[in-house]
Amino acid sequence: EGKRAGKGVYRFFHAEMDGRLRARAELEAGLRTAIESGQIIPFFQPLYSLAKDRIIGFEALARWQHPTRGLIPPDEFIPIAEDIGLIGKLSQRILRDGCIAARDWHPDTTLSVNISPVQLRDAWLAPRILGILAETGFAPQRLIVEVTENAVIDDVSAAAEVFASLQRAGIRVALDDFGKGYSSLSHLRQLRFDHIKIDSSFVRTMDSAESQKIVSAVAGLGRALGMPVTAEGVESEDTARKLRELGCDQAQGYLFGVPGSRSEAAHMLAGNDAERLAAGLRQAV
Ligand code: C2E
Ligand code: MG
Ligand code: MG
Ligand code: MG
To answer: In what residue span(s) does the EAL domain sit (predicted)?
Structure first.
């Protein structure tokens, strides 16, 4: 009896693994064409200034508009792109499309893009980014490059050189998902970042005293190091209010806007401006 159940479980597990491997193999086979044919597109999520109470930028987040499967989230294809050497091509595509979309925005609005730690080993990364900015006419001062901290940055001196070339050109570099990785503090010591983004796992649990203390300490760390701190994953007014009290500069999250298409982003920004204008008029009257 027990033996049979065990076998069933094994078979089920096997079938599930099989399915997952097949799904991965299919995505892997389609990814190169998807990048080349423009199926990988950026969505845009607002970056909100808690001090100024308005949208100050957008983060480009990759989506795969799959012909049969619909919109596929990045967690399903970014790791594949990293594994099979396509992450550089994918990032260039997101950056180029992001810069083109950002032409619709107010010229103060920033664009943030994500890069994978593996890309930091590429000596051509900075020149390629600068090339795309020149080609699209996007000012380097408006670009923020976010380095996701899901892996240790293994070659710190190569990364430092990439950062330095980007920063010399006026591009800012943000440490993404701060606190989630295993070497956050050593990264902060060894590399020069311009911004810190606190991982959403701390922000989402801010009703606990521990998380609040951690967020408060990171905000203090940012102030001490002269790096504005962004809280990720802000979903409630309560959290936003606490973040303001703790001296957190910026926030992102569903409260301020979910990632949307290029035209949705332009709409969010227009709403933002209309509100600001209305507030200004009310003040003037
Ligand atoms: P990330 O850069 O830390 O981006 C934040 C993620 O949190 C996004 O997920 C965003 O949609 C989600 N998010 C934002 N606000 C909220 C909220 O209030 N609640 C919840 N539950 N989630 C929220 P997304 O778009 O699925 O992206 C996941 C990760 O994939 C990104 O994390 C980033 O590490 C990676 N990624 C996305 N696009 C790219 C890309 O073009 N290149 C690279 N290398 N990585 C990318
Ligand atoms: Mg990011
Ligand atoms: Mg992340
Ligand atoms: Mg993040």
So the answer is: 24-273
Buried/exposed code over 23-62 (b: 16+ C-beta within 10 A; e: otherwise): eeeebeebbeebbeeebbbbbbbbbbbbeeebbbbbbbbb
Greatest CA separation for the chain: 82
Cα 146 from Cα 196, distance rounded (Å):
9
Q: Which of 64, 75, 114 to mutate to test the pocket of ligand 1 (most atoms within 8 A of CB)?
A: 114
Whether 150 contacts 120, CB under 8 Å: no
> 245-277 pLDDT, tens per residue?
999 999 999 999 999 999 999 999 998 867 766
Among 65, 145, 148, residue to substitute to test ligand 1 (most atoms within 8 Å of Cβ): 148
CA distances from 209 to 77, 242, 251 (A): 36, 12, 20
**ipTM of the complex as predicted:** 0.98
Say what the pTM is.
0.92
Q: Which amino acid is at 130?
A: L
CA of 226: how far to CAs of 7, 94, 192, in Å? 59, 29, 11
Q: What is the pLDDT of residues 201-210, one digit of tens each?
A: 999 999 999 9
- pLDDT tens column, 58-117: 999 999 999 999 999 999 999 999 999 999 999 999 999 999 999 989 999 999 999 998
Distance of alpha carbon 246 from its chain centroid, rounded? 23
